[in-house]
Write a structure and sequence with these properties.
By secondary structure, the protein is of the alpha+beta class. It contains three helices and five strands.
Amino acid sequence: MIEQAFYTVISGDVAIAAIVGARIHHLTRPENEAGSAIVYQRIGTVPVTSLAGDSGLDAVRLQVSCWAATHADSMALAELVRAAVKAAPDLQATTAMLINDRDAATGNRRTILD
């Protein structure tokens, strides 16, 4: 499953682990969790077809939220995630979109990779 492959890649990256530790979550971040974190979820799956029919492959879209106290820190974390995923031969991923956000309640910053 792509989510497990993604988790394995980013949780095994030393630079990412130094920032987020074990704070890598699927779907939601626990309430009141402090510190930088990563939250990821599958947004869509489209079967890949060819002239011969179904290829047995899927194009999967993941959304990854990189949380940190500052904009610069969330962007730096997002760049580490991008680099780790790009270097993983099993994922064959590309970033389609990058969005910056701010949580009004906490002031924390989020960089979303799509």
